[in-house]
């Protein structure tokens, strides 16, 4: 065997193996490195064989995790060795040790090229593999034509061509222009006719990469992929070597189905039918078998088929078949299948209309929260979180609460956060919400972040009806023998504010409240004491007439803390003591907290951050994450419009406030300032200011702490050694602006986002901008997710909002730098002032190397986002319709050039604009009536009615009547709907808007429609 | 969709083979291998073969004392990778005959050759065992 040729290597490996401990190993490795280094120094005396042996040793040592700073040159030099064994080692070790920017690699480029264009097949393969693994931009430029030639050459054997395909994929990623040559897409399609399954496997990988960036050029490949699938499904012409446990190459099947998922639709009915036959066969014909490998392989294919069916949005029948299958999977015995069942069900939630079918499996999913495997429990939690809505929130949240006491520590924080969010989002009534949060604190206080209890305080403060209830509950929890410190905080606050509402109940006199709270004081940390002091002051204020005994007791406490070492406690004690002697003045100063301005939950944002990394997280990592995200919130430049407390509330979400660490006095101070500094007239106290400064850079530099080091390394690595190439890799010099090609169609993305609330707004090879929005009445919060796709930072990041006059938009500070592979979130607060169809534009720019990219993107804060569907009965509709008589409140227009669609499709379209279609309200079956509520500051909530009259004989025209109580609204809405009807912003495969056709100038037939009872009302 | 790395680690946590398809510095590799080993090796037979780690997934399989761990993008087809691991093991088995940890350890270069014939640039390049082994057999004959 060849090994005997390298005896020295095996001796070394076995010596390492015999080392008793790490220290011995290190000594042995150091000795060997010294040895190899001396041998390499006198290179002249080295034979190729010796070189080969030492280079392997170097690789072995490197694999063990030791730094090896030499030997690279020797590895590279072996590439030009004449004999195969040495050459091979040179190629393989080089691609393990070096990265694409290593300067030595450049030295080899000529040899590599000679090997590629040479006659020796084995050399060709080695060279193609090296370039495929570590080839950079320079390789792309000099080698692409040669590689392409090999790939499509008919004289070249499959073993070379399959490598050429993946090599080309690498070159394409380095420089997309390499395939931007005339006729390449046709050649790609021809490649898919290949018989050899090895070549086909690599070519399909190449295709997946190409279509994921630009499917439009590759429509001709779509039927070919279906052909491949048919060939494999029927097991035609599949050599036994490519059959894996009886399944024709499962990997190729998976790849081909993946490629198809990048095409928006399949329009050709024949192709569609053939594909669905194959899919149906996979869905129906995959049985559970005993052999594990066969089972896995067939299910790999099955899961890919499921994904494809979901993507194609097939007939509902097939979809429900999929859900049924997944339901079977999640209750199966095999953990892998359970995991994948849950994962795919979560994906399926994106498909409309199947939520109800998924809900039938709710009980099963809840059971999986107790699965022995944490990977599965996490998936179950994710799915429950995703499928929760008003109908099942109570059930799900209560299950989560129950699960909390037994859940893994690694999951508790995420779990309590998710429970809190669901409770807030879908609470059937607010008292239930309060119950849930208090239970949460009670059961898992350590894992309930401060945001959660701040939020419940906000809710109670803003809802008067809720205050007595919350106070009663807080009082009840205080009776428990041992309660979490967070519970002490929240109950003390609630009772300070609202205990006077309970005064007549037993056990709720000011004195009793005071004493039960005061009992907890010895057990709490310094961060809680200031809250308790505020509560005492408030109790005192509410006790009218004054109770001298209580007064003396509380004054004694204030006096005791007057000399406290903690500044916050001391200040409060001194001030409360002085104030409480002033009598009536106290009433004003300690009056109830004012209401908080309505704002979106900070929790949801936090959950999204956590989702970015759902795997187990060390506390440090978690905290690091919170730091980045919170820092962004802190820099939120919202003007303090009358609500300093609010600004500080977000400040309070400080990294160090993370539940595990309550000790730091500083942070305690900040927190107390934030929540309860009633006496402090200047909101941004110096300590807060310091915090801002401290946190400022964090937002820019990415995750601090442990990860900083590595991030920095990565950054400097890229910057120092690779910037030159990286820059080259982007654009030819001199052509520095706006030649980065966006991925996907920007306009299509925008239109899609007009109809849904989350998705990708923009993407290019370097950045992806996603959005997620929530709309409530005339307000909205839109979060921009800026994701850096590179291993180098994006710098000079700037975002400007050009907003039309009707929208008030505030963008939080966008960090100047996005660290490598990091995602930054920038929330936008949107307020709709008056109705208008104008669109806000995001002017976004960033720099990558010397390369500047600037794009202007329309933001999906469009008029229909401020609509809320409302159902209107006939009794309500007709009087409204009649009362809004004629222009300018009611406008009518005949629209021509309408994209032909069925009434059903039109109804769906209106539903997606958030209109409520009322079937049957209009007696004429060809007409459609819908209603909605529009929200803006000027109009408040305003009912809008719309009626569409279609003509079955000519679907390209219709008559539309829009009515509302505001002339501007009526007009804007009418124009908006018209725009939507004329061009439908769904699948990109849709034909361009039908050009307006010549119409008789007379009014449409609908006017004379006898059935149009509504028309009579006009 | 793609493979980020292939690791072979024994049950003591010693790396027996590491092949990365994206460049990581030595420190990053060390940290990553440590984290993964801690996370995966403690899992039991009743648990699934997928572990979510950072922003990707690890698909792993255990053969006697040796763990095969493959890091993949989140959208990768997990079962396909799981069986790809098995294909790799079967291929090694065909070549070595009853492959064990020591074979891989002492024939590191061959293990690398085989892997290189199977994965390139993070994509599967060949799944036919005889095609994978052909160049190695050629070389054995030559030497």
Number of alpha- plus pi-helical segments of chain B: 5
Which second-level CATH architecture of chain B applies? 2-Layer Sandwich
- The number of strands of chain B is 7
Whole-number count of domains of chain A: 7
Low-confidence stretches of chain B: none
Shape of chain A: globular
What number of domains of chain B?
1
Terminal residue distance of chain A: 95 Å
Strand content of chain A: 5-15%
Can you give the helix content of chain B as a percent range?
Answer: 40-55%
Classify the secondary structure makeup of chain B into a structural class: alpha+beta
Structural class of chain A: alpha+beta
Primary descriptors:
heterodimer; A: 1018 residues; alpha+beta; Leucine-rich Repeat Variant; 7 domains; six-stranded antiparallel β-sheet; 42 helices; 16 strands; globular; disordered C terminus; B: 143 residues; Beta-Lactamase; five-stranded antiparallel β-sheet; 7 strands
Secondary-structure map:
The complex is a heterodimer of chains A (1018) and B (143).
Chain A lengths: L6 H12 L3 H20 L6 H16 L8 H7 L5 H14 L5 H15 L3 H14 L2 H16 L5 H17 L9 H8 L5 H17 L8 H12 L9 E2 L2 E2 L1 H11 L8 H17 L6 H21 L3 H15 L4 H14 L6 H5 L2 H6 L6 H14 L5 H12 L4 H18 L3 H15 L5 H13 L3 H13 L6 H14 L11 H9 L10 H14 L5 H14 L5 H14 L3 H6 L12 H10 L7 H16 L9 H9 L12 H12 L9 H16 L4 H23 L17 H10 L2 E6 L3 E10 L2 E10 L6 E8 L4 E5 L11 E10 L8 E8 L2 E8 L8 E3 L4 H10 L6 E7 L6 H10 L3 E2 L9 E10 L3 E12 L2 E11 L2 H16 L30 H5 L1
Antiparallel strand pairs in A: 1-2, 3-4, 4-5, 5-8, 6-9, 7-8, 9-10, 11-14, 12-16, 13-14, 14-15, 15-16
Helix pairs in contact in A: 1-2, 1-3, 2-3, 3-4, 3-5, 4-5, 4-6, 5-7, 6-7, 6-8, 7-9, 8-9, 9-11, 11-13, 12-13, 12-14, 13-15, 14-15, 15-17, 16-17, 17-20, 21-22, 21-23, 22-23, 22-32, 23-24, 23-25, 24-26, 25-26, 26-28, 27-28, 28-29, 28-30, 29-30, 32-33, 33-36, 34-35
Chain B lengths: L2 E8 L4 E6 L5 H15 L9 E4 L2 E8 L2 E7 L5 H19 L4 H6 L1 H11 E2 L2 E2 L4 H14 L1
Antiparallel strand pairs in B: 1-2, 1-5, 3-4, 4-5, 6-7
Helix pairs in contact in B: 2-5, 4-5
Membrane topology (chain A): Peripheral membrane protein
GO molecular function (chain A): clathrin adaptor activity
GO biological process, one term (chain A): clathrin-dependent endocytosis
């Amino acid at each position: 065997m060849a090994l005997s040729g390298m005896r020295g290597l095996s001796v070394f490996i076995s010596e390492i193996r015999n080392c008793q401990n790490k220290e011995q190993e290190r000594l042995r490795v150091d000795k060997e490195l010294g040895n190899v280094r001396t041998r390499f120094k006198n290179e002249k005396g080295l034979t190729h064989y010796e070189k080969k042996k030492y280079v392997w040793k170097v690789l072995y040592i490197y694999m063990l995790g030791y730094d090896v700073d030499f030997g690279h040159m020797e590895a590279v030099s072996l590439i030009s060795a004449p004999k195969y064994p040495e050459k091979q080692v040179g190629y393989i070790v080089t691609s393990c040790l070096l990265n694409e920017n290593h300067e030595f690699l450049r030295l080899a480029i000529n040899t590599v090229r000679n090997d590629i264009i040479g006659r020796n097949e084995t050399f060709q393969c080695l060279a193609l593999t090296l370039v495929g693994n570590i080839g950079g931009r320079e390789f792309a430029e000099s080698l692409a034509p040669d590689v392409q030639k090999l790939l499509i050459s008919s004289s070249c054997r499959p073993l070379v061509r399959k490598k050429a395909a993946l090599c080309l994929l690498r070159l394409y990623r380095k420089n997309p222009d390499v395939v931007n040559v005339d006729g390449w897409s046709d050649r790609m399609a021809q490649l898919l006719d290949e018989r050899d399954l090895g070549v086909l496997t690599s070519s399909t990988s190449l295709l997946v990469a190409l279509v994921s960036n630009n499917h439009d050029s590759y429509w001709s490949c779509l039927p070919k992929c279906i052909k491949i699938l048919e060939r494999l499904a029927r097991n035609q012409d599949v050599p036994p070597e490519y059959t894996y446990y009886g399944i024709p190459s499962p990997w190729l099947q998976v790849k081909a189905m993946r490629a198809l998922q990048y095409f928006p639709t399949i329009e050709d009915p024949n192709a569609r039918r053939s594909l669905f036959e194959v899919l149906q066969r996979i869905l129906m014909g995959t049985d559970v078998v005993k052999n594990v490998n066969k089972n896995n392989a067939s299910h790999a294919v099955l899961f890919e088929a499921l994904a494809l069916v979901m993507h194609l949005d097939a007939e509902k029948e097939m979809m429900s078949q999929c859900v049924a299958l997944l339901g079977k999977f999640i209750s199966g015995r095999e953990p892998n299948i359970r995991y994948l069942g849950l994962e795919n069900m979560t994906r399926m939630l994106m498909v409309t209309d199947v939520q109800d079918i998924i809900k039938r499996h709710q009980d099963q999913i809840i059971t999986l929260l107790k699965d022995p495997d944490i990977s599965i429990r996490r998936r179950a939690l994710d799915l429950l979180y995703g499928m929760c809505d008003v109908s099942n929130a109570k059930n799900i949240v209560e299950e989560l609460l129950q699960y909390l006491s037994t859940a893994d520590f690694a999951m508790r924080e995420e779990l309590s956060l998710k429970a809190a969010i669901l409770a807030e989002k879908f609470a059937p009534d607010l008292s239930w919400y309060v119950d849930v949060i208090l239970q949460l604190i009670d059961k898992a206080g350590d894992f309930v972040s401060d945001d959660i209890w701040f939020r419940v305080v906000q809710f109670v403060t803003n809802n008067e009806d809720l205050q007595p209830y919350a106070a009663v509950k807080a009082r009840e929890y205080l009776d428990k023998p041992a309660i979490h410190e967070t519970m002490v905080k929240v109950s003390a606050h609630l009772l300070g504010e609202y205990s006077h509402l309970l005064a007549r109940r037993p056990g709720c006199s000011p004195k009793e409240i005071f004493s039960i709270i005061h009992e907890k004081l010895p057990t709490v940390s310094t961060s809680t004491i200031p809250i308790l002091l505020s509560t005492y002051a408030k109790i005192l204020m509410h006790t009218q007439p004054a109770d001298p005994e209580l007064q003396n007791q509380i004054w004694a406490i204030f006096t005791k803390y007057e000399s406290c070492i903690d500044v916050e406690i001391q200040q409060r004690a001194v001030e409360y003591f002085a104030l409480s002697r002033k009598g009536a003045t106290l009433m004003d100063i300690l009056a109830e907290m004012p209401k908080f301005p309505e704002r979106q939950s900070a929790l949801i944002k936090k959950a999204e951050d956590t989702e970015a990394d759902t795997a187990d997280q060390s506390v440090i990592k978690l905290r690091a994450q919170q730091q980045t995200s919170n820092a962004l919130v802190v820099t939120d430049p919202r003007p303090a419009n009358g609500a300093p407390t609010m600004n500080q509330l977000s400040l309070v979400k400080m990294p160090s406030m993370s539940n595990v660490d309550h000790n730091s006095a500083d942070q305690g101070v900040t927190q107390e300032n934030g929540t309860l500094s009633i006496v402090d007239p200047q909101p941004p106290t110096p300590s807060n200011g310091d915090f801002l400064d401290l946190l400022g850079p964090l937002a820019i530099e990415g995750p601090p702490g442990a990860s900083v080091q590595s991030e920095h390394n990565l950054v400097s690595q890229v910057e120092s050694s690779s910037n030159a190439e990286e820059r080259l890799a982007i654009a030819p010099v001199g052509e520095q602006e706006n030649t980065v090609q966006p991925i996907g169609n920007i306009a299509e993305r925008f239109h899609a986002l007009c109809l849904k609330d989350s998705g990708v707004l923009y993407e290019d090879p370097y950045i992806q901008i996603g959005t997620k929005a929530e709309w409530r009445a005339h307000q909205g919060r839109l979060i921009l997710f800026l994701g850096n796709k590179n291993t180098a930072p994006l710098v000079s990041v700037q975002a400007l909002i050009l907003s039309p006059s009707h929208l008030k938009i505030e963008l939080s500070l966008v960090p100047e730098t996005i660290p490598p592979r990091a995602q930054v979130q920038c929330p936008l607060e949107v307020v709709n002032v008056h109705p208008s169809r104008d669109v806000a534009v995001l002017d976004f720019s960033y720099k990558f190397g010397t390369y500047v990219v600037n794009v202007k993107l329309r933001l999906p804060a469009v008029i229909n986002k401020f609509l809320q569907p409302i159902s209107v009965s006939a009794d309500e509709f007709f009087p409204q319709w009649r009362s809004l008589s004629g222009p300018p409140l009611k406008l009518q227009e005949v629209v021509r050039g309408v994209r032909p669609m069925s009434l059903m499709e039109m109804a769906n379209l209106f539903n997606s604009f958030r209109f409520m279609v009322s079937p049957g309200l209009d007696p004429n079956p060809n007409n459609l009536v819908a209603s909605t509520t529009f929200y803006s500051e000027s109009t408040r909530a305003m009912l809008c009615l719309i009626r569409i009259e279609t003509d079955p004989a000519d679907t390209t025209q219709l008559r539309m009547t829009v009515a509302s109580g505001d002339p501007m609204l009526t007009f804007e809405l009418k124009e908006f709907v018209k725009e939507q009807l004329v061009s439908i912003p769904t699948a990109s495969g849709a034909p361009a808007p039908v050009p307006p056709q010549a119409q008789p100038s007379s009014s449409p037939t609908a006017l004379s429609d006898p059935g149009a009872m509504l028309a009579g009302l006009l | 969709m793609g493979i980020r790395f292939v690791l072979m680690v024994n049950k003591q946590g010693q790396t027996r083979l590491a092949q990365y398809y994206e460049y990581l510095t030595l420190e990053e590799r060390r940290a990553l291998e440590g984290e993964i080993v801690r996370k995966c090796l403690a899992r039991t037979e009743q648990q699934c073969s997928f572990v979510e780690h950072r922003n990707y997934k690890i698909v792993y399989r255990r053969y006697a004392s040796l763990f095969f761990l493959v890091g993949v993008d989140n959208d990768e087809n997990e079962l396909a990778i799981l069986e790809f691991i098995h294909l790799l093991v079967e291929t090694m088995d065909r070549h070595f005959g009853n492959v064990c940890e020591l074979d891989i350890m002492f024939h590191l270069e061959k293990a690398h050759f085989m892997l290189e014939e199977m994965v390139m640039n993070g994509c599967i390049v060949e799944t036919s065992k005889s095609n994978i082994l052909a160049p190695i057999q050629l070389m054995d004959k030559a030497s």
